[in-house]
Amino acid sequence: MAILILKSGKEKSLLRRHPWLFAGSVERLEGRARPGDTVDVVSAEGRWLARGSYSPASQIRARVWAFDENEAVDHAFFKRRIAASIARREALPELAGQQGLRLIHAESDGLPGVTADRYGDTVVLQLTSVGADKWRAAIADSLHKATGCARIYERSDSGVRAMEGLAAATGWLLGAAPEDGIVIDEHGVRMAVDVVAGHKTGFYLDQRDNRRRLAGLAAGRRVLNCFCYTGGFSLQALAGGAREVVSVDSSGPALVTARQNLALNPQLDPACALWREADVFEELRARKKADESFDIVVLDPPKFAPSAKHAERAARAYKDINLAALRLIASGGFLMTYSCSGGIGLELFQSIVAAAVLDAGRSARIVSRLQGAADHPVSLAFPEGEYLKGLLLQVD
Ligand code: SAH
Q: Domain-by-domain residue ranges, the chain?
């Protein structure tokens, strides 16, 4: 096995069990390693630190598989890690019976570059690092055996693969597309999941509990759901008894699916749902001009800041939409606002929203801080895993 030798004093983050080793910390590679090969990482003084996958193309030069010198990285390793990841979820009663469930949350589950979501009897696998890519067969086999799922679809088309020197890889690794499509039940609402063409692995599972939170607030209220995608928040608001739900997204195909999802739920009244294909920034301003008001506005925009270097521009965009949304909220109403940008931390996000509240001439208080559901855990050693943050505000 080749060895990555660190520069003097560069072992601190690994000693804190952070799973990324940046190129700038590496003195040299001793021996030969191809992309994705397992290498040992040692300090300048020769102390063994970790075992990880080598990625010469990436600034993240290695991602740690193991912090235990006795743990080999082989088929059995993936079988153990995947079983442990699934067992962690089985131990959480709040996740019991979920048909849509994240089984592996990458770094946070000790499997850098590996994401797996289960939708009924289909598992969708996303591999985003060259190390994970190399172990595809072992990972898929372990997932199949651990879940008994009849289908595994690979959805490795995330843009971040390019940074690892990888092309997109998609297709059925096991079984074939179910004829009737894939539908999951989420807190009593049926939702279609397009694993081939939908966003991420097909669905935003991370917002599951936040959608239910909206349902609990929605009775009798007029709701504006911005960036609605396939209608997850919209349908939960309707299920919660909203008087009217206006949903906005710029994607025509997402809105087609949203309407189909509504039709999958005959208990919900389509007369209460309005769908708008539009840019949210423009739509919010147009509705203010028309003197409209809402009791609840949901803002769940796409990632404006993929990393910290985009934070400044992203901050302006978050401020803009939050300000425009606040101008539409009736006195005593609610703003449910999110950022899924890794580059914007919770504190920064809260200060952006606070500035928007001030500029809107309103006052507001935090009812709840919101985060991803329990199947999207955040490892304390890997704070970068905390990408989704939200605030539920009550606005005077
Ligand atoms: N809330 C959704 C997920 C939102 S994903 C859920 O719970 O499932 C972000 C969505 O924003 C995508 O559907 C994308 O089409 C939409 N979008 C991106 N930019 C937009 C814009 N400027 N105006 C309107 N919609 C936009």
A: 3-66, 75-182, 204-395
Specify the ligand 1 atom closest to the Cα of 211.
7
Q: Which fold has domain 204-395?
A: Rossmann fold (3.40.50)
pLDDT for 306 beyond 80:
no
Q: What is the percent of the chain with per-residue pLDDT over 90, rounded to a whole number? A: 97
Mean pLDDT (whole number) for 325-332: 98
pLDDT at 310: 84
Distance CA 283, CA 335 (A): 16
Question: Between helices 252-263 and 232-239, what is the axis angle to 10°?
Answer: 30
The minimum-distance atom of ligand 1 relative to the CA of 280 is 23
Identify the architecture of domain 75-182 in CATH.
2-Layer Sandwich (3.30)
Whether residue 302 has its Cβ less than 6 Å from ligand 1: yes
- pLDDT the model gives residue 309: 81
Q: How far is CA 54 from the centre of its chain?
A: 25
pLDDT, mean of residues 116-133: 98
Q: What is the pLDDT of residue 311?
A: 85
Instruction: Name the burial class of residue 335, with classes exposed (0-12), middle (13-18) and buried (19+) by CB atoms within 10 angstroms of its CB.
Output: buried
Substitution candidate for ligand 1 out of 223, 245, 249, 297 with most atoms within 8 A of CB: 249
Angle at Cα 260 formed by Cα 258 and Cα 262, nearest 5°? 70
Neighbour-count burial of 75, counting CB atoms closer than 10 A to its CB (0-12 exposed, 13-18 middle, 19+ buried): middle
Judge whether 272 counts as a catalytic residue.
Answer: no
Instruction: State the pLDDT at residue 308.
Output: 76
Under 8 Å between Cβ of 259 and 227 = no
Residue 251 CB less than 6 A away from ligand 1? yes
Q: In CATH terms, are 3-66 and 75-182 the same topology?
A: no
Which residue shows structure tokens 């925009």? 301
Please give the CATH number for the structural domain made up of 3-66: 2.30.130.10
- Cα angle 206, 209, 214; round to 5: 120
C-alpha angle with apex 159: 154 to 165, nearest 5 degrees? Answer: 90
> CA–CA separation, 157 vs 140, rounded Å?
17
Q: What is the whole-number distance in angstroms between the Cα of residue 144 and the centre of ligand 1?
A: 32
